[in-house]
Amino acid sequence: MQILLVEDDDSLAAHVAAGLREAGHIVEHRADGREGLVQATCETYDVIVLDRMLPSLDGLKVLAALRATENATPVLIVSALGDVDERVRGLRAGGDDYMAKPFAMSELLARVDSLGRRNATVSEPSDHLRVADLEIDLVAHVVSRAGRRINLTLRELRILAYLARNAGRVVTRSMLLENVWDYNFDPQTNIIDQHISKLRQKIAHDEEAPLIHTIRGLGYVMRPE
Question: In CATH, what is the architecture of 128-222?
Answer without folding.
Answer: Orthogonal Bundle (1.10)
